[in-house]
Structures are given as structure tokens and as C-alpha cells.
Specification:
The protein contains four helices and twelve strands, in the order βαβββββααβββββαβ. The strands form two sheets. Strands 1, 2, 6, 7, 8, 9, 10, 11 and 12 form a nine-stranded mixed β-sheet that branches. It is globular and about 55 Å long. The protein is of the alpha/beta class and 223 residues long. The chain starts with a strand and ends with a strand.
Length: 223
């Protein structure tokens, strides 16, 4: 059974990382159950293990945190649902690529409940939405915007970090970085796509789709 925890308010990033570290240690030790945490952070940037210095355009805009998850620079802030996924891949198959694809497909399933077609692109981790109403890129390729970022870390095959889905963040805040090191394409959100979706609406869809793909969950009081 996976504990399903929804945190209220804005959780400071260092606090969230410390709590994840403690829970992962407990899962490794066999004293804690798997868990999914849903929360929001105050505005900040995180640098993954592949982050390039030139992709941090405005280092003084928000706090910047080094993190050992995979990926490059990402933004977190109010209006974005951050989903920290602490699952035991010893029991779910020790295949990192398949696990990341499962996370991407979980997001795609969730977006589909709102009639949004999320797509995966080779070489670009995360979930993308086609924007045919926007001008073509200079090379003539169609415009696509990122709606969800994915970056995980494993310790003894226990996952942590996870997913960030844009519900209604301030999209201008992404301007301080090159999101995930990808230029040309933009960033979007559910509200930017014209859908008046609330965080609670997204949480319901996330949980239902998670249970279809990963198994049952149980409500747990937020610490």
C-alpha cells in the first residue's frame, strides 16, 4: 500500500528534501511504507546533475538549490503541483528507463482526464503539449510547450524527487532559466491552455490514474 499525502501551504525546499531523505531511509530499513507526496514550493530554481551554468540566466531572481536528481534546471513555485514519488523499485522492477516512462505515462493519463493530449518526445524527458495555434519555430518545426517536468533519484532502488505539473504558476518565472536545458520550445500550464482546473481537481485525477498504473493508495495525515 502506498501512502498518499497532500501537504497544505508552501513547503520550503530544504525541508522537503530532508523529509524525503528520512522517508527513503525508512523504506530501505523496512520501517516505512512507500509514499507519494503532493505539495507546492515557494518560488525557487533547482539544478539537477546535468545542469549547465549558462542555463541559469538570472541567478539572483529566486533561491537556487543544488539537487542530486537527474535533469537540468527546473523552476518550482506556487500554482505548480510537485509530486514526490518514493517507490520501491526492488518490488516494481529494477528498470530506471521503464520507471521514468511509467511516470510520464501517469502524467499523460492524468492530462487525458481533462481532454489534454500530453506527449513524450525522444531526448526530452517530461510531458509536452502541441501548440499548433502558435507560430512555427525558426527551423520550421511545430511549437510544443512543456507542461510537466520529471527528475528522479534512486538510492538502493528507492525512488525520490519526481514530477512537477503546471496548474497555474506564473509562467514568467521560468524566464530566469533555460528549463531543462531546452531552447526554442516554451512552457505551459493547465490554465494557460484555457482549462479552469484547480489543484484539488488535479489531485483527484492524479490519484485515480496512479492507482490504475501503480496500485492502491491510502490516505495519510500530512506531517
Amino acid at each position: 500500500m502506498v501512502n498518499w499525502i497532500i501537504r497544505e501551504g508552501l513547503v520550503p525546499y530544504p525541508q522537503a528534501v530532508a523529509e524525503m531523505e528520512a522517508l527513503v531511509a525508512g523504506i530501505i530499513a523496512g520501517t516505512e511504507d512507500e509514499a507519494v507526496w503532493l505539495l507546492e514550493h515557494p518560488p525557487l530554481y533547482t539544478a539537477g546533475t546535468s545542469a549547465r551554468g549558462q542555463d541559469l540566466i538570472d541567478p539572483d531572481r529566486f533561491p537556487v538549490f543544488e539537487t542530486r536528481r537527474g535533469g537540468q534546471y527546473t523552476y518550482h513555485g506556487p500554482g505548480q503541483r510537485v509530486v514526490y514519488v518514493m517507490l520501491d523499485l526492488n518490488r516494481r522492477g529494477r528498470d530506471v528507463r521503464a520507471f521514468v516512462e511509467s511516470l510520464e505515462n501517469w502524467v499523460i493519463d492524468t492530462l487525458d482526464t481533462f481532454n489534454i493530449r500530453g506527449e513524450i518526445r525522444p531526448g526530452r524527458v517530461g510531458v509536452w503539449v502541441a501548440r499548433p495555434e502558435k507560430p512555427l519555430l525558426p527551423d520550421g518545426s511545430p511549437r510544443e510547450d512543456k507542461i510537466a517536468a520529471i527528475g528522479i533519484r534512486l538510492r538502493k532502488w528507492i525512488s525520490f524527487h519526481g514530477i512537477a505539473i503546471n496548474v497555474e504558476p506564473d509562467l514568467d518565472h521560468f524566464g530566469g532559466i533555460v528549463p531543462c536545458g531546452i531552447t526554442g520550445h516554451g512552457v505551459t500550464s493547465l490554465v494557460d491552455l484555457g482549462l479552469p482546473v484547480t489543484m484539488a481537481d488535479l489531485d483527484v485525477a492524479l490519484r485515480w490514474c496512479f492507482e490504475q498504473r501503480f496500485g492502491a493508495t491510502q490516505e495519510t495525515d500530512a506531517p
